[in-house]
Write a structure and sequence with these properties.
Length: 252
């Protein structure tokens, strides 16, 4: 495997100034018009990133307008003897994970497809917490790095009146289709639909910039991801989606 450099987003020329621009000002001035999103949903064996394991990944790459560009999903084998956790929630049993890749077998692909984008999730604290723990432990994310994120759950009541911030309720309120809840790819696609709904509501209100512009600016500057590009390409063939899911879906 070739050396895995930190991801560096191409830098735009800076205007000459007499004094260095403070970091906060640089973020405020960043051009976020071309920053896309990586919408992610994880199914796990429990609630603790330190003690529990990821057993399914759903990832949707979306453009700056929220339109889906590409998506993939895979089951993840957490290792021999690991309890799969609440089957009544995620619907998976140990036999479903036989033959699925370990997280280390898809870590380069995952890091590559998150890089350069704002990470979106419904309850981002949960999903990003697991990503930070798992990918940090595999040296695919700089230790201590704060991943730029957008939480569709936290933003829900800014963009609509909803009795609950649960994903299903938010989707019903916004008119967003949701497939099999607690299936990682379907939930990631639903969260991407909520993101598009928020963008549309924001445009109707004349809200410029978007409510999460700072997260997009942070994504421009973030260089904490590590991956091998040859490994990432090879790992695309290792995906084992849940029955009924496609492996890779390219929309554009």
């Amino acid at each position: 495997m070739e050396a895995m450099p930190f991801y560096h987003r191409p830098r735009r020329p800076l205007r000459q100034t007499l004094q260095p621009r403070p970091v906060s000002d640089a973020l405020d001035a960043a051009d976020v018009s071309e920053v896309g999103y990586a919408v992610v949903d994880l199914e796990t064996t429990g609630l603790s990133p330190a003690a529990d394991s990821i057993i399914e990944i759903g990832l949707v790459q979306a453009g700056p307008d929220g339109a889906v560009e590409r998506s993939w999903s895979t089951l993840v084998n957490p290792g021999v003897g690991v309890d799969v956790g609440p089957t009544h929630i995620h619907g998976l049993v140990a036999e479903d994970l036989v033959g699925a890749p370990a997280l280390s077998d898809v870590a380069d692909l995952l890091a590559r497809d998150l890089a350069g984008r704002a990470v979106v999730a419904h309850n981002a604290r949960f999903d990003v917490g697991f990503l930070t723990q798992a990918l940090g432990g595999l040296d695919r994310l700089e230790r201590g790095a704060r991943v730029p994120r957008v939480c569709t759950m936290e933003l829900a009541r800014h963009f609509m009146t909803t009795p609950s911030r649960r994903l299903v309720t938010c989707c019903e309120t916004a008119g967003v289709a949701i497939g099999r809840h607690h299936t990682a790819l379907d939930d990631a696609l639903a969260s991407a639909g909520l993101l598009r709904h928020y963008l549309a509501v924001g445009r109707e209100r004349g809200e410029e910039p978007v409510a999460w512009s700072r997260a997009l600016a942070e994504a421009v500057a973030f260089n904490g991801w590590r991956w091998s590009e040859p490994a990432a390409r090879a790992q695309e063939s290792r995906l084992v989606p849940r029955r009924g899911d496609g492996v890779l879906r390219n929309r554009r």
